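Sanity check

After download, print the first record. It should look like this:
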Amino acid sequence: MANSMFDKFENGRLFSPEKEKRFPDLPWTNHPSFTGVALKHLVTGSDTGGLFSYHLVKIAPGCAIGDHIHDPQLETHEVIDGSGICRSGEAVGEYSPGVISIIPPRLHHSVEAGDDGLLLFAKFMPPLC
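Expected structure tokens:
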């Protein structure tokens, strides 16, 4: 799945008064627990003074980020391309481009990609890493 907006961020950069970071220099890492899920850690807690982190996430077609929680992080998703389903507590929401979801701390949630996969941005406050 190719998406120009996602590609632009994958090849973009972080600019702040303290530093500049080129995103093409950052590696994709496979999720340690969920097959078919890869992350690129664009902005980490060390970049934000421990306030938040920002990640590109690719979920392959038919794959999922299984049920889990974050404590103490609030998590947001911004769907860029593809389709899927997010289960957040008792709520079930369809993921498609333009959808933003907010997942409170300590709430069980999962994300399943559809037949075309799923590309999203995930933010964590406080940072995940």
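If your output differs, re-run the checksum step. Summary of this record's structure: DSSP finds one helix and ten strands in the chain.
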